[in-house]
């Protein structure tokens, strides 16, 4: 009997051990999701724990242009912001780490691909944020095309080693910032460059120049096809839902240490993406301006009237303040006696230095002070035309190196529907955020147009010619009413007869 009891006990023990093993194997998955959910919710709660700013449409001291790649932000920087901000007011560029002190008063404009986590380094209460969003499918296309285009420029070199070494030497000599220093291109371009050289080497080994393809987005023998590109780990980490992660502050370029774990949890468990989306939406709500790449003309007009007008006003107020300082310095220096000036060289030099500094600043700011919204729009139209021509020339020169590829809107229409649907699926958060941005844009555009109409209507009757205009308007109204009255009396007479 003892041996039977022993067998029973052993069997029970084995069953318990087996059950424990099953539970042990299952628990990491369950616990991992639970851990991720806690991490994401904690981050989202802390990010949402700020009320909407009532004066969010009022420009503050520092303007942070959160530039989402491939949305047309470069055009806004060169053709709008550089027209109203002098170079002395631009903050040093920041692409991989903070390289300036944002508390300095001269730092008034920051334009960068850095994500929203940059706000943790900026004086929040003194900073206004603007951004532009683009249809996510088009943005994926454009990101892919630009990655190939820039990488193709290196094909002038005989091999990858030569190209890499030359790029390093050029970057060391350049005073400006190379594309290879800018997120996300510092990851995407070298990766695509390596792929281009590998495929070119394979063609040479094969000894055949015959290119078989199903269009410019499926040239497997020359460069990575689009359908392959969108399924790579690097595209999943950087490209897909890139706008949402950038606005939320969760890119792999983020300044917040917890952001990397949050991003990976969301990428692993798609259901957690809703928390990120809510944070990104609130960030858009708090922005001074949200533009849309597709609504080009309306976005530009609104930017000039919402952002440009306030920058111009701010610059004029600053210039007037500096003029007052210069006048005060002048008055103070005139009160000093000759003996005081002779015995106080340091004070004299200090006054001269301040006066000359104000004078030089005023000369440098002269063109900015004379700017108006109307002049800004005129300058923008001229600037954007020349900028697009230059971009077109560079694009054509790059694509010649991967001929017969020719990226175009027409070519995009021939991409298989299954690939388009996959892009949409992979960018579900960006699609939702873009819809939300469209609603914000529509409301702000309506408000801006109503405000502009009210201003024009008010100025029409309150300027020097307003009295005459009002009399003409009143007279015309009276004549119209009189005409209607006479006509109605005639009709009444005819009916009586």
TrEMBL record:
Residue ranges of the TM segments: 468-486
Recorded topology in the membrane: Single-pass membrane protein
Comp. bias regions, Polar residues: 348-369
Gene Ontology CC, one term: membrane
Low complexity: bias regions: 327-338
Keywords, sorted A to Z: Glycoprotein, Membrane, Signal, Transferase, Transmembrane, Transmembrane helix
UniProt cross-references to InterPro entries, sorted A to Z: Heparan_SO4-6-sulfoTrfase (IPR010635), P-loop_NTPase (IPR027417), Sulfotransferase_dom (IPR000863)
Sulfotransferase domain mapped to chain residues: 85-151
EC numbers: 2.8.2.-
UniProt-listed SUPFAM superfamilies: P-loop containing nucleoside triphosphate hydrolases (SSF52540)
A single BP term in Gene Ontology: heparan sulfate proteoglycan biosynthetic process
Protein name in the entry: Sulfotransferase
């Amino acid at each position: 009997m003892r041996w039977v009891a022993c067998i029973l006990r052993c069997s029970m023990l084995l069953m318990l051990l087996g059950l424990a093993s099953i539970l042990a194997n299952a628990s990491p998955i369950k616990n991992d999701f639970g851990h991720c959910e806690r991490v994401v919710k904690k981050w989202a709660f802390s990010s949402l724990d700020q009320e909407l700013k009532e004066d969010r449409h009022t420009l503050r001291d520092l303007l942070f242009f959160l530039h989402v790649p491939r949305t047309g932000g470069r055009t806004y920087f060169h053709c709008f912001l550089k027209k109203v901000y002098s170079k002395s007011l631009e903050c040093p560029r920041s692409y991989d780490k903070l390289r300036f002190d944002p508390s300095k008063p001269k730092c008034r404009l920051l334009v960068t691909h850095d994500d929203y986590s940059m706000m943790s380094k900026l004086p929040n209460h003194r900073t206004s944020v603007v951004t532009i969003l683009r249809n996510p499918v088009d943005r994926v296309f454009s990101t892919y095309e630009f990655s190939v285009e820039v990488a193709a420029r290196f094909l002038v070199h005989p091999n990858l080693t030569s190209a890499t070494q030359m790029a390093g030497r050029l970057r060391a000599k350049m005073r400006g910032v190379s594309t290879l220093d800018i997120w996300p291109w510092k990851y995407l371009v070298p990766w695509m460059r390596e792929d281009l050289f590998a495929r070119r080497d394979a063609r040479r080994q094969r000894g055949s120049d015959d290119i078989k393809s199903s269009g410019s987005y499926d040239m497997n023998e020359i460069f990575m096809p689009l359908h392959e590109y969108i399924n790579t780990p690097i595209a999943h980490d950087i490209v897909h839902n890139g706008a949402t992660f950038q606005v939320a502050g969760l890119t792999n370029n983020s300044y917040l240490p917890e952001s990397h774990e949050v991003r990976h949890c969301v990428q692993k468990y798609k259901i957690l993406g809703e928390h990120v989306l809510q944070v990104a939406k609130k960030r858009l709500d708090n922005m001074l301006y949200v533009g849309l790449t597709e609504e080009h003309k309306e976005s530009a007009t609104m930017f000039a009237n919402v952002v440009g007008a306030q920058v111009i006003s701010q610059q004029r107020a600053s210039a007037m303040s500096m003029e007052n300082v210069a006048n005060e310095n002048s008055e103070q220096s005139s009160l000093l006696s000759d003996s005081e000036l002779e015995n106080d060289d340091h004070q004299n030099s200090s006054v001269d230095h301040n006066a000359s500094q104000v004078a030089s600043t005023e000369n440098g700011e002269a063109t900015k002070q004379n700017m108006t919204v109307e002049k800004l729009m005129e300058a923008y139209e001229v600037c954007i035309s020349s900028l697009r021509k230059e971009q077109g020339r560079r694009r054509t020169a790059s694509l010649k190196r991967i001929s017969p590829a020719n990226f175009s809107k027409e070519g995009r229409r021939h991409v298989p529907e299954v690939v388009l649907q996959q892009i949409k699926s992979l960018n579900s958060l960006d699609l939702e955020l873009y819809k939300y941005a469209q609603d914000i844009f529509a409301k702000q555009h309506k408000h801006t147009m109503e405000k502009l109409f009210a201003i024009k209507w008010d100025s029409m009757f309150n300027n020097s010619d307003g009295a005459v205009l009002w009399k003409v308007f009143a007279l015309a109204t009276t004549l119209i009413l009189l005409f209607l009255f006479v006509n109605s009396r005639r009709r009444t007479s005819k009916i009586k007869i």
